[in-house]
């Protein structure tokens, strides 16, 4: 099967992706971001980079809290959609996270498993280096919201079918060559397509090694969107609070 490194460049730019995931719990996501900004003690008008912002829904929410937000995403279609919401303190740019940022920020958020996409470890490390260089000062904070891979693999649903908007999504999951792979067969009335998602199996010790490589410091870990303590066996998320 073809699980190209740049699977995200094609999959995220399709309408099918947004249809499959349109029922995500956005209320929970907004609560998470509200919890984050309170914990981090961010101030009104602080600058935030929402890295891998998708269609900008969470950038919009952060902006509504009084922050100066830039949303960045690789998907041309997502940025085109998000740009309609721009204002003086909310901007959107198309950007590959492997490329250094032009500006520096008080906080950089990489949320909802938008990390670990790349085949080569050096590319993940390059992203972290860009995040480090994109932070204004040693007091600036980065947040990476990743999945708890140990629990995800232990509870892996190998096959399921989802019906949505008269489209059938046949989904298979497996762990292979250090990646959690999701094969998504999309069946419409007249066509059939296959896409992939590939998330690197990054546990906490490996991520810490990544951070040490670029000179970032792990300050806190949390295991859910209520910012409860991370537990490798029970937590759904691995949320990292990082500084340089």
Automatic annotation (TrEMBL):
One Pfam match, by short name? Methyltransf_31
Name the PANTHER family on file: TRANS-ACONITATE 2-METHYLTRANSFERASE, TRANS-ACONITATE 2-METHYLTRANSFERASE-RELATED
Alphabetically, which GO biological process terms does the record hold?
Answer: methylation
**Which InterPro entries does the entry link to?**
Methyltranfer_dom, SAM-dependent_MTases_sf
> In the record, what terms sit under GO molecular function?
methyltransferase activity
So which residues are the signal peptide here? none
Q: Which UniProt keywords apply?
A: Methyltransferase, Transferase
Name this polypeptide is given:
Methyltransferase
Quick check: keyword Methyltransferase in the entry?
A: yes
- Domain Methyltransferase: start-end pairs: 43-164
Q: Which organism is it from?
A: Urechidicola croceus
């Amino acid at each position: 099967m073809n699980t190209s490194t740049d699977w995200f460049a094609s999959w995220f730019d399709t309408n099918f992706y947004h249809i499959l995931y349109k029922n995500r719990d956005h209320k929970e996501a907004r609560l998470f971001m509200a919890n984050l900004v309170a914990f981090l003690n961010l101030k009104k008008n602080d600058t935030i980079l929402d890295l891998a912002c998708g269609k900008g829904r969470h950038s919009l929410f952060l902006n509504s809290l009084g922050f100066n937000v830039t949303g960045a995403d690789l998907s041309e279609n997502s940025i085109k959609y998000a740009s309609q919401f721009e204002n003086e303190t909310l901007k959107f740019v198309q950007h590959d996270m492997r490329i250094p940022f032009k500006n520096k920020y008080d906080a950089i958020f990489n949320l909802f498993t938008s990390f670990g996409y790349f085949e080569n470890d050096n590319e993940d490390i390059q992203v972290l280096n860009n995040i480090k260089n994109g932070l204004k000062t040693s007091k600036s904070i980065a947040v990476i919201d990743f999945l708890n891979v140990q629990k995800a693999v232990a509870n892996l649903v190998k096959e399921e079918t989802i019906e949505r908007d008269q489209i059938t999504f046949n989904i298979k999951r497996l762990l292979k060559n250090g990646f959690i792979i999701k094969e998504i067969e999309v069946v419409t009335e007249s066509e059939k397509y296959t896409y992939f998602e590939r998330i690197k199996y990054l546990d906490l010790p490996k991520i810490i090694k990544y951070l040490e490589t670029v000179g970032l410091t792990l300050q806190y870990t949390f295991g859910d969107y209520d910012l409860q303590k991370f537990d490798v066996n029970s937590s759904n998320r691995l949320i990292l609070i990082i500084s340089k």
